[in-house]
Design goal:
Elements lengths: L8 E4 L3 H6 L6 E3 L2 E3 L3 E3 L21 H12 L2 H6 L1 E9 L10 E4 L4 H12 E16 L6 E14 L4 E14 L2 E8 L2 H9 L10
Parallel strand pairs: 4-7, 5-10
Antiparallel strand pairs: 1-9, 2-3, 5-6, 7-8, 8-9, 9-10
């Protein structure tokens, strides 16, 4: 569902139906996730870059990232881990003592229990929109590394607090051989921690 909000919004669960209805003008859906219009400055040939999959179609010029988004929308853990390189680096800025899926992780085997499972357990996805995506392949297209930058918005309801986060993000992927080799997200990690816990002070005494 395409979000129409222009600023971050923090609401209670009672406001979620109205917020969701405001995003009902979806353009395209992939596995239940809605994508708005995409301005794709394609640095790949649309086949996933360095040996990547030929599909599925999606909101970015890189088929590996599109497949990752489709599996993420379906919460397909096996499909997600199959798309991640064995030695991948995963970076979610934040304190894992507050947000369990945050932090820097190395290796595909750290992600199922360290990232995907706690994120899925804590969140109910409400909307996801890609505003712009572009990709660039360094080296030969057959064996190079593709960097993919994705700018968009998402909204989640966090189950521990029953509060809603509507935020803007930039995701940076690198892909090679049909696998995601690194991932980093740029988002409002402080607001996310506050919404996840429902504690604006994050346990700190008021100054």
């Amino acid at each position: 569902m395409k979000t129409t909000a222009s600023t971050n919004a923090l609401t209670t669960a009672a406001a979620v139906p109205a917020a969701s209805a405001a995003r009902a003008d979806a353009d395209t859906a992939v596995n239940g996730q809605a994508y708005g219009p995409v301005d794709s400055d394609a640095g790949t040939d649309g086949t996933g870059g360095a040996g990547g999959p030929a599909g599925p179609a999606g909101p970015t010029p890189d088929a590996t990232v599109n497949a990752f988004f489709a599996a993420f929308g379906a919460r397909d853990l096996a499909g997600l881990t199959a798309l991640v390189a064995e030695d991948a680096e995963w970076n979610i800025p934040g304190d894992p003592a507050i947000v369990p899926w945050a932090g820097l992780r190395h290796g595909r085997d750290t992600l199922a229990d360290g990232f995907f499972a706690p994120l899925f357990a804590a969140t109910e996805p409400l909307s996801f929109e890609v505003v712009h995506a572009h990709a660039h392949t360094a080296g030969d297209a057959s064996d190079g590394v593709t960097a993919v930058y994705v700018h968009g918005r998402f909204a989640y309801r966090f189950r521990p607090s029953q509060q809603l986060l509507d935020d803007e993000f930039v995701m940076r992927f690198t892909t090679a051989g049909g696998r995601v080799t690194s991932y980093r997200i740029f988002e409002d990690s402080l607001l996310l921690a506050r919404v996840h816990t429902g504690d604006w002070a994050l346990g700190l005494a008021a100054a």
